[in-house]
Known about the structure:
Distance between the termini: 22 Å
Mean pLDDT: 97
Largest sheet: 7 strands, mixed
Bound molecules: adenosine-5'-triphosphate, magnesium ion
Amino acid sequence: MELPFKIVVKSEEETEQVAKQFADILEAGNIIALNGNLGSGKTFFVKAISNYWNYNDANSPTFSIVNEYLCDKKIYHFDFYRLNKIEELYDIGFEEYLMDDEAVTFIEWAEMIPEILPSTYYEIKIVRLNDSERSIEILLNRS
Ligand SMILES: Nc1ncnc2c1ncn2[C@@H]1O[C@H](COP(=O)(O)OP(=O)(O)OP(=O)(O)O)[C@@H](O)[C@H]1O
Ligand SMILES: [Mg+2]
């Protein structure tokens, strides 16, 4: 996959294909911010990648803030949606998760606390067009 990447997909299967192509460029230590409205498909995208890496029980970490999956890769799956303040992230040791360069870290709703992101990260922007269609944009941010 060449970045920046942008596509309109018409089905869940097409989203899964995009997720697999993106997964193939990821390396341990990468951070991926997923932004997009409620129900746009952020969790679906992370599940598609974790399935591809042979983890079949990924779930939304909305209430737990973070889930950890051990499979072909080590995955941290965050969701910032229910966070009230940045201190809650420090309380669960967010910085140690970020520093773990053996893990690939996905963050749903990263835009809610953008100041916590490292200087280099992938960003996935998903827009729900209708029941089955999504616009998916993937960028590499470097600052
Ligand atoms: N082309 C598609 N790609 C991804 N998901 C799709 C597609 N078409 C339909 N869906 C459905 O859209 C829903 C996306 O829900 P999901 O929980 O992944 O959203 P989310 O962005 O994580 O929401 P939240 O902000 O609540 O965490 C799923 O029910 C999925 O089956
Ligand atoms: Mg979600």
